[in-house]
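Objective 1b: paired records.
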Amino acid sequence: MTPIRWLLSLVFIVQMYLVMAVMAVLFAPWALVSRRGARVAAKTYCRWVIVSLRLLTGLRCEVRGTPPTAECLIAAKHQSFLDIILIFDAVPAGKFIMKRELMFAPFLGQYALRIGCVPVDRGKRGAAITRMKADVARGAAEPGQLIIYPQGTRVAPGDVKPYKVGTGLLYEQLGQPCVPVATNVGLFWPKRGILRKPGLAVVEFLDPIAPGLPIPEFMARIESEIETRSNRLMAEAGFRG
């Protein structure tokens, strides 16, 4: 790691949060009266991050596969903040299942609620699933792509975390197709730390899974497809973990 690359990564991070604050204030009047205004603000910010990331750190971003445009459930691998940005930017009306603590994050939390994200208390597992299903049911009238991270947290490349059954319960409840998403972004934008490495960060939308599968079969399938393809994307980028 050269000092200049670390310094440029720090500059990127600082400006990323400064721009978040500035855009949040500038778009606030529109976002307060219109969900569309909040969504335009969020997408504008995502594109700024993607462009400034390439210019300052040399990290390019690519979306593969076919992002869904109809209502569906998206089950995605989660390695860093970058996969959130790339997935949201790629779909027309994304909304996330998010941990409740993010509601109180400046700017981020308020805009997340405005675009229809569903906060979930990650306390007791059973209570969390019941609340999540109820919150999703209440928001069912708002069309869009509901995005969930089946492992429930960021998982660094090479680490192994179980896939949680809440994703299967939502798949059953919604009765919609599920689109798995693989990624390698954690190789370049880590879960922790300052350095952003140059390279090609990829998120890939895989073939949709039709509704109607039994939950155990569905859970086994998304884990196999997401992990297999994510491992291939990481190997393609030179990861040998």
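Objective 1b, second protein:
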Amino acid sequence: MKRQIEGHRPLVAILRGVQPFEVEEIGQALIDAGFGIIEVPLNSPDPLQSIALLAREFGDDAIIGAGTVLTPDQVDQVMDAGGRLIVSPNMDINVISQTRKRNGLSYPGVFTATEAFAAINAGAHALKFFPASLHGPDGIKAIKAVLPENMPVLAVGGVSIPTIGAWLEAGCDGFGIGSNVYKVGWNAQKIGQQAAAFIEAYDKADT
């Protein structure tokens, strides 16, 4: 692997809608397939319970956290549940600051160069370009050209297995992956198969 975040591929599995009763089996399937970063969006059912279960079971082997984190109070709730990763759809300096204060990993959502540099200056660990589909690889490439080389860039929204190579060539380091690896109602076997296919495609393109 050329690109890594704490020894993991920079691929975030987004489990929007996952429920606590199934989350451990799903987490195991994702980790077995090669995912090392797992996000439970806070607009899922009982998300803090799911995060706590994942952190307890897999916290030593994977980065566990939350998505759709909008306030500093939510940062605290995720951290208290055992999560480390804080992902937002927007760039909120207060959320980034609280994440840093709690020694978490801050992945704010950005769309413009102005937002990207504001997030970097506030202490973000990586940038989530969302929705990436509106930029396309060419748009990401243009913004990436002026960003610090050591700042990881993840594209979220509109990334599929056939397009992985184009996004990587544009300068993306990795992706947040939702419906390509998880949909409500899929069982762990199905999720594992989808995740393994994405990992295979990513590794082939990441050369």
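The CA atoms of residues 10 and 41 lie 18 Å apart. The domain at 11-205 is CATH 3.20.20.70 (TIM Barrel).
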